[in-house]
Structure formats: structure tokens, C-alpha cells
Amino acid sequence: MTMSPDRIAVRIETALAAHASAERAGVMSGGYAPSRLRYFGASNPDMRNVMRPFARELRASPPSLIRDVALALVRRRTMEGRQVGYELLARRPDAMAMLTPALIRRLGRGNDNWASVDGYAAFVTGRAWREGRVSDAEVVSWARSRDPWWRRTALASTVTLNLRSRGGHGDARRTLMICRLFTKDTNPMLAKALSWALRSLVPHDKDSVQQFVERHHATLPAIVKRQVGTKIKTGRKTRRF
Questions:
Q1: CB 215: neighbour CB atoms within 10 A?
Q2: For residues 143 and 177, what is the distance between their CA atoms, to the nearest angstrom?
Q3: Which of 47, 103, 120, 233 has the most CB atoms in a 10 Å sphere around its CB?
Q4: How many CB atoms lie under 10 A from the CB of residue 164?
């Protein structure tokens, strides 16, 4: 008999709790990535070590179960739990194929820190956008949201279009379409994401990024001009001395 998604979610969180670190949880919630989500304090390697046996166990399960486990983990509002759920989804193309724009928005509900947003963008939204499961208009609507975390989701989603390790092959049109909406945004968290989005495109289309920076030079945050300029010149985020 197939176990319910909620029971699997509880088992995943129980496994995460075995890696709990009060010190790490305090660092994350206290300043590194403040959130209303609950932290176990599990590290990224810990999360991967928890995720892998569940991925093997659920390998033959119907894709709807994987989808529902991810949704159950989101509802339970732990930072590490939803990260495991996102990666379980990403490992099952058949489950990803079931995602609609409405389901994708549900999976992002409650993300209120850069770590959760960036994991969500890497495993879910960026890939869904690249594969045509969400439209350009949907991502633009996130970029124009009053919620800064949805705005960061839009920027971080462009990275999956470009980052080779995420299956990206370069997409200057869509990357710059989103980046143009942030050229005057002074929120430091969004400025860092804008820098990341532009830097991810440099290996594919350095000239377009250079032209973008020159065109918007007067309004771009200093960190964007500095980091992207260094990436264009050296191929790295920061200079080596």
C-alpha cells in the first residue's frame, strides 16, 4: 500500500531532524537567511544525504505522489523540508511535467528568504520556465510583484536558463527581459540577484551583457556594475590579487 504524501513528509523531516544543529539554525535564522520558516539547522550535504534514499525509495512511485510529497513538505513550513521536496521533484521529469502555473505558485508559497527562493528557482521555477511549463508573462508577473521574494524568484529563475550545471544553454532574450525590470531597484537582496542573473549569462553572450550594463550604467546598483564588470573582464566574480 502506498504511503500517504503527508506521512512521507513526516519521515523526511524526521530524517532531517537527525542532522539538526541548533548552532547552524541560529546562524541561519539570526541573520544569514532570516525566515518565518522553521530551521532544523541541517547543512546542504545533510539535505542531500536525506534526499537520496527517499529518491531511491520513491523511484517507482507515480509522479503524482512525488508532486504531492513536495506540496506536503511546503505546507509543513520547514526550510530544509521544502528544499528536499524541490529536489525530489527535479529528479523526476514525469513529476515536473505535471506542474501547472498554479501548482508552481503553491510550491513557492511561504518562501521568505534567499536560500529557500534560490533552491526553489534552481529546482522548480527556472526549469519549468525553460521547459515551457510557465510562460514569460508569468515570470514577468513575479518580477512585478509587491513581494520582494517573488521578485527574487524571477531573477533567480533566469540563472537556470544559463547555468550549464543546471542544464542551461544560454538565453539572453529572456534573461535580459527580466533584468530590465530591476535596473533601478535599490533593494540589496535584489541587486545581488540581478548581479547573479547577469553573470550567469556572460559565458554565453558577453557582448549583450556588456551592452546592457553600459545602457543602464547610470541606474544600476554599484555591486552589479562591479561584479558583472569583473566577470566580463576576468571570468570571475571578484578579482584575484
A1: 13
A2: 10
A3: 120
A4: 11
pLDDT band at 239 (very low <50, low <70, confident <90, very high): low
Residues 224-236: pLDDT tens digits?
A: 999 999 999 998 7
Segment 165-197, tens digit of pLDDT:
888 999 999 999 999 999 999 999 999 999 999
Are the C-beta atoms of 53 and 92 separated by less than 8 Å?
Answer: no
Rounded to whole angstroms, the Cα distance separating 145 from 128 reads 19
Tracing cell 532544523 back to the chain, one arrives at: 40
Task: Please tell me the distance from the alpha carbon of residue 239 to that of residue 231, in angstroms, as a whole number.
Answer: 9
Question: How wide is the angle at C-alpha 167 spanned by C-alphas 234 and 44, nearest 5°?
Answer: 80
Q: The pTM is what?
A: 0.94
| Cα angle value 19/37/32 (rounded, 5°) | 75
**Using 50, 70 and 90 to split pLDDT, how confident is the model at 3?**
confident
With cell 546562524, the residue in question is 27
Q: Which three cell numbers stand for residue 188?
A: 540589496
Among candidates 147, 13, 33, which has minimal Cα distance to 76?
13
Q: Which of 168, 157, 235, 171 is nearest to 199 (CA)?
A: 235
Distance CA 88, CA 107 (A): 13
Burial class (CB in 10 A: 0-12, 13-18, 19+), 96: buried
Are 58 and 66 within 8 A, CB to CB? yes
Residue 37 grid cell: 520558516
Give me 150's grid cell: 517573488
Q: How far is CA 229 from CA 159, 207, 235, 241, in A?
A: 18, 12, 9, 16
